[in-house]
Amino acid sequence: MSEPSSSGVTGIADLEPLARAKEQKAWYWYDWANSAYVTTTAAVLFAPYLTSVATRAAGCAVGDGAPDCTKDLSVLGLTVSPESLVFYLVTLATILSALVLPVVGAGADRSAHKTRLLGRYAWAGSAFAALMFFVTGTSWQLGAVLLVAATLCLGASLVVYDAILCDIALPDERDRVSSRGWARGYLGGGLLLAVNFGLLSVMSDTELAVRISLLSAAIWWAAFTIIPVRGIRDRVPFHPEPERGGLVRASFGQLWATLKDLRHYPQTLLFLVAYLFYNDGIQTVIYAASVYGERELKFEKSSVLLAFLLVQFIGVAGALGFGRVAERRGARSVIMAGLVIWVLVVAAGYLTPARNFPLFLLLAAAIGIVLGGTQALSRSFYSQLIPQGREAEYFSLYQAAERGTSWLGTLVFGVVQQVTGSYRPALFALAAFFVVGLALLSRVDARRGITEAGNTPPAVV
């Protein structure tokens, strides 16, 4: 099954505790690495910055207040509001991800060098992220291409990264390991965001400060990826039904087989559908929060950054706390409780008046508590529902709705803003995503799904 290590350890179940713990610690560092990009670039700075660039290209004034632009951009013959451009780009990236990532996952499952693949995708994504430094003036087209490319590379790296969780953690360890990874990510992303917050506070040229911050996130992502690439050993892939032909042919063959076989895992399929809905809501909140804070609630960029810093550092405690509760209550039950909190958070966001910063910070604190916990436990819970040897391909389906690849929520957000001229009505749709996801998740039989996938249920399901 697995390649022997230098200590003679073979297979997941036979890993010595110390050797397994060492690999887990190396694995955490990729959450630390990519969260700098996810936080500084994807969630906080690039969306409003590209919106400003697009607004300038449309011939409108650019400021930190509410949207005052009634002019549109022409994109491939279509009329697009500059205020909605980012949401459409994320939608496009997600549609492309749905086509590309399953093939990436199938290839990773057949590769004996998952860590090498992780590094390649991460370093390609960080290169695209670094080029965002050159998005200036009215060059929204360059920014659009780089955002889509970096998002695809991030998704590809996360497919491989999440699949490695099944190699380095036993079933009873995965909630804890996944939660610690998310906590490490929030800490790392928060530290770099704090540095960039300071940079934005002291530099008079705000646009240059944003561009430097974008570059710093790319460098951080690339540099810290070295640790998991060097610290996690590769394993011989496990394939009960190998496909003939080269890697590309075998990848598409395995993908087709997985899509056909998915009907044999109804609980896994049900969870994926539930996750598609509620994670679309989560991802849209992540992408839209900075734009919503600046353009709708009329806060300056520095104020929005401060709120995100609060989310990051409270998110560390939230992820670890949710992980501990899951050890006693089971991941599914804790996720469901988190979704109820999400509905309340979205409702509070709709009611938050413009320029009420204390209430905005309170809302950020609530998001921090629930954000990391629901995402970390979703990852570990899903890892229990997938068959051995096809982890990366199944995680590619999972990544279609993971960080930075939401499309239903962002599409709704963009369309509603373009039609109404306001972001507030779109929050009603986000609440619906959480409610539908919660209803579907309540129907998932966790123990049955784990055993159907051929896995051993953890002590607490």
From TrEMBL:
Domain of life: Bacteria
Keyword terms: Membrane, Transmembrane, Transmembrane helix, Transport
Family annotation (InterPro entries): Atg22-like, ATG22/LtaA_families, MFS_dom, MFS_trans_sf
Stretches that traverse the bilayer: 85-105, 117-136, 142-164, 185-202, 208-229, 269-292, 304-322, 334-351, 357-377, 422-441
Cellular localisation: Cell membrane
PROSITE patterns the record matches: MFS
Membrane topology designation: Multi-pass membrane protein
Span of domain Major facilitator superfamily (MFS) profile: 267-461
Pfam (any one): ATG22
Gene3D superfamilies named among the record's database cross-references: MFS general substrate transporter like domains
Protein name: UMF1 family MFS transporter
